[in-house]
Design a protein that fits this description.
The structure holds 2 protein chains of 2 kinds. By secondary structure, chain A is α+β, with helices and mostly antiparallel strands. Chain A has helices at about 5-30, 80-95, 130, 140-155; strands at about 40, 55-60, 70-75, 110-115, 120-125, 160-165, 170, 185. In chain A, strands 1, 4, 5, 6, 7 and 8 form a 6-stranded mixed sheet that branches. Chain A is elongated. In chain B, the strands form 7 sheets. A 6-stranded mixed sheet of chain B has the order 24-23-25-30-26-29, with helices on both faces. Chain B has a 5-stranded antiparallel sheet with strand order 5-6-7-8-9, with helices on one face. A 5-stranded mixed sheet of chain B has the order 18-14-15-22-21. In chain B, a hairpin with a 4-residue loop joins β1 and β2 (about 45-50). Chain B is flat, with a radius of gyration of 25 Å. The two termini of chain B are about 35 Å apart. Classes of the chains: A alpha+beta, B alpha+beta. The interface between A and B is large, with 33 and 43 residues.
Amino acid sequence: VSLPWRWLIGGVVAAAIGVWVVSLWLPGWLADDRPDSTSNAILPGDPVPAETRRIHASLFYVAASGDGLIAVDREVVYASAPAAQARRIVEAQLAQAPEGRVSAIPAGADVRSLFLTSRGEAFVDITAPLATTHPGGSLHEALTVYAIVNALTVNLPDITAVQILIDGREVDSLAGHIDLRHPIKRNPGIIR
Amino acid sequence: MRRPPEYDGRLTRRILIAALVAALAAGTGARVQDPVSYRVVTTEGTSVLQVHAATGTSDIVTLDAAARLFGLLVRDDARAGGVVVVSGNDRVVLTAGQSTVSSGGRLVSLSAPVTRSGSTWLVPVDFLRALNRGIDVRRGSRLIVVAPAVVPRITPQFERTSTGGRLIVSIDPGATTRVTRDGDVVSVRFQANGLDVEPLSGAPSDLITGLRSDGATLLVDLGSAVTNVRPDDGRDAGRVTIELIAAPQTTAAPSPAPIAPLDRAPGIRTIAIDAGHGGDDLGTRSADGSTVEKDVTMAVAQRVKALLEARLGVRVIFTRDGDASATADRRAALANNNKADLFVSLHANSSPVATVRGAQVLSLDATGYADVEGAAPRSDAPALPVPVVGGGTRLIDAVPWQLAQLPHVSASSSLATIMAQRLSGAGVTMFTTPVAVAPLRVLVGANMPAILIELGMLSNVEDATALATAPHLAILADAIALAIADVRFGSPPATTGGGHP
């Protein structure tokens, strides 16, 4: 092999390594470096194991009286890691309500990521439609927020408070009423 | 959203009002009131107008007494079932049972209806405002000022200094003053016809033993520790500051850390009305999209402002200008910076269940803020020195901005209950939990009793239809104004009918 061919092959190999570093290794390395995320986070793009086991969880829908939430027993996909299980529960809470039930959560909202801290706080990052398509009103907003907060704190007792983020950012509120700047604790009073 | 424990019927309205008034008075001091008469100040002198009867929102006087005092000519108008009052070139027509009067072709709203008892006509004292003679009725201090007489409101405040203390006298409207000392009495003479003096609270007796007025002179009785007095140069017509220099042993005596007063002027004098949403933030909407929350809240806010200013004589500030958006912090900041005594946020609600309807009054749920940094009271928290006009510094207690509401949650809860009772009494359909608490973003920064009123459910057809009609908005505004009057005057709501003055 002549010298120019050696340079060409070497360049191709170096470029392949560069592409691998930028596209695969670097994002993973950065994600691993985020606080509290090493073992307790499910990030966008992570492969979700195809579990077949399911757990029973209480999910929260609008009571017929319209002034609170009711707990409905539903099956949720099992996950071995706490953060993964928390994410599964929120995903189920955000999904379409079962027949005969009304969800307090606007359609189109999805979980982006979820982190747990050692202090028992869950940070749930949800896509923008949770806020941008919210109908508003302090009652509806409270029902939305506490459906998510209660779903996590009731089913996973190690989680004592939940902070909702929108598109990765801390927000004042969803629609101008409920203060979301701090983790919110379970509200049993809203459950009918 | 949580149902507060107070709303279970165990506390009566009277107790709630008393508690709220006490809480407000504790923070602001209470204005001394003469329950039976008004002092009438003119450029010729001072006279007295007797009060025939007092209600929660109005003082009633006899028309004869007012006519004698103000030189009015009164003629019965049998055809109209009323009476005509002639004042100079103006004619004011009063009709029994009506809470509006016709004055020079314009209608003037009164705080109570005109009534007749035998041959005696009874009118609310604010009827005098309709005479178009520059009569200023100050119900809080039971004072009537007839232009061109000038009677400034005098609001004294005391603050500790390293050399003794400082008396700050705010003057509204501003007036020329002259400060002199004669022995243990400092006299502040005003170029005015009289003074409307608020009580002084928080001054130690070794520096100030009393504060009184004599005509247009404010007299400050000095305590035994005062060795020297230094008034300011008097160039500020809106304020007089008097430095009280104390003997060294007084300042050396053990005493609590000096805390500058954060008190506002005594009594409820400023109300912050927060019309929810605005600008691009429409808030919630009716199902057909025709009724928008930001418009409903502003319409009610404007009505409440008109009622409060006309009937109570209080200052009303809005937290947003017209159809403009405003952040929650800006809304609270406007109320705080204007030293509002109450913060009332107006909103319209929405439920995922369309059949749900009704108004609701909310105050802050403080439980969620217990873990927030700065929430726990710290007895060792140092006061912050801040520079003051004229040099030097004073110490103030720092209140975390995002937690300013926490000291007021009890008073806010009482205010919410009073408000819900007034709304219900006015015939407004109430939500299943008329009073509740929630971690409401707009309330947490308000450094005064604060509530959020959901005027109705725009997601409900009946409520949305009502919220689009002027008569219903007027009922809501009346009830809100009455509740504030309850708090302002410490009187319970009317037992029947809600009483729309």
